[in-house]
Amino acid sequence: MKNFYKTIFFIAICFMFSTNTEAQITYDYDKDVDFSVYKTYSFGGWQDDSDKIINDIDKKRILSSFKSELLKRDLDYQLAEADLVITLFFVVDHKTSTTAYTDYMGAGMGYGYGYGGGRYGGYYRPAWGWGGGYSTTSYSENDYKEGTFVIDIYDAKTKKLIWQGVSQKTINENASKRARTIPKGVAKIMKKYPVAINKKKK
């Protein structure tokens, strides 16, 4: 069972940073906060120990990527007593999608009345399709995994959450390009942070 969960979360890392599928990024923040006053941050750890199922190489890539993005925004790492505390988290959900496919059969293409037998209850109905024919719609279900990566940023003094970035993406097990795509994935999340990049540090 332990190996099973390790495999699931390893796949999550693969999907999150190694595929061409566009990640959906959402974010929220406290609009009453002046983010420009923060100059240092510390790492508060991985929520629910989700780092235990991430290999050391990928964990180093993720942390280095965040450090780089934060530095571009004039935020320096500090071991303790920093202005901000940052935590990371992974979760994987199992989902099912349904796809419908309609097959038109008949003598010619055009608008007319087709007989909807079987699942349609046996009645005539107007439809675009093959004139004098009928259509059959089939459905297929596809099980897939959706991974979610979360970064939470807290004000160290007040202990309040002031910014959260979330990346959601369908899992793809191709992990051959993580060294290049991990930094890109992290940059896409941090693009939503309400402090512009210092071009001198880019």
Automatic annotation (TrEMBL):
Domain (DUF4136): residue spans on this chain: 26-194
InterPro entries, alphabetized: DUF4136
Pfam families for this protein: DUF4136 (PF13590)
Superkingdom to which the source organism belongs: Bacteria
Gene3D superfamilies for the chain: 3.30.160.670
Keywords: Signal
Name of the molecule in the record: DUF4136 domain-containing protein
Signal peptide location: 1-23
Keyword hit for Cytoplasm: no
